[in-house]
Amino acid sequence: MTKRPGGSGSRGLKERVRTARGRRASSVRWLERQLNDPYVRRAQAEGYRSRAAYKLIEIDDRYGFLKPGMRVVDLGAAPGGWCQVAVDRVKSGNEDPRVVAIDYLKMDHMPGIILFEKDFLDDDAPDLLVEALGGRKADCVLSDMAAPTTGHKQTDHLRIIHLCEVAAEFAGQVLAPGGTFLAKVFQGGTESELLAELNRNFEKVRHVKPKASRSESAEQYVLATGFRGAEPTEDPDRARD
């Protein structure tokens, strides 16, 4: 049984970080939040690389889209929390790695994945991921990508939506029929054009905010399930008939 964070013994653990010379107040707040975050402590205790692992665990526990034997592409994978969950749930191993991951940030390798240290927005990145799939379709595309925040709500929203749009376009190219797309967005809703596209391409589209997402955060996820399949490419010779 999965233990919930907190519980008896969690009281009285609140820690304070004293402001040191040269340390910004925002840095102090971040450190205090990390020290007092039950998901951070739980990740350390259970061997996950980040607290983000519990977001994917919670969403998959609820909707059940990761199953043994599936192939998964993880966009914005570092430091690897989502990869760990995906590897475990699809039963990926070194002999037949079923998880393909990419991030421009350095990430320590782990068994069961094919890893690219590269920006997904690079022109050649999608082809590398397709090649790594070995001619097979993916069953799930995950994207926890996020652009550096500016503090300007509208700008940050547009940046994250752009990443989601690029990830959704890629998913439409590599997903097998019935596949799943999960991507980070910000509250305020997914842009109508993107949402319309997802609704055309998937049976069900919903917004999800797992409990592991901090309550004060604008972060949420768009989950699209039941991919209808890529539209067939028109044969130019037939079009001339």
Offer a quick outline of the entry.
It is found in: Cytoplasm. By secondary structure, the chain is an alpha/beta fold. It has 8 helices and 7 strands.
Question: What is this structure's SSE topology?
Answer:
Elements: H1 25-35, H2 38-46, H3 53-63, E1 72-75, H4 81-90, E2 99-103, E3 113-117, H5 125-132, E4 138-143, H6 153-174, E5 175-186, H7 192-201, E6 202-208, E7 219-227, H8 236-239
Parallel strand pairs: 1-2, 1-4, 2-3, 4-5
Antiparallel strand pairs: 5-7, 6-7
Helix pairs in contact: 3-4
What does this structure look like?
- Its EC number is 2.1.1.166.
- Specifically methylates the uridine in position 2552 of 23S rRNA at the 2'-O position of the ribose in the fully assembled 50S ribosomal subunit.
- It is found in: Cytoplasm.
- One of its GO terms (molecular function) is rRNA (uridine-2'-O-)-methyltransferase activity.
- This protein folds into two domains: 17-47, no CATH class; 49-227, Rossmann fold, CATH 3.40.50.150.
- Strands 3-2-1-4-5-7-6 form a seven-stranded mixed β-sheet, with helices on both faces.
- Strand 1, helix 4 and strand 2 (99-103) form a beta-alpha-beta unit.
- It is 35% helix and 20% strand.
- By secondary structure, it is an alpha/beta fold.
- The relative contact order is 0.11.
- The protein contains eight helices and seven strands.
- Helix 3 (53-63) runs parallel beside helix 4.
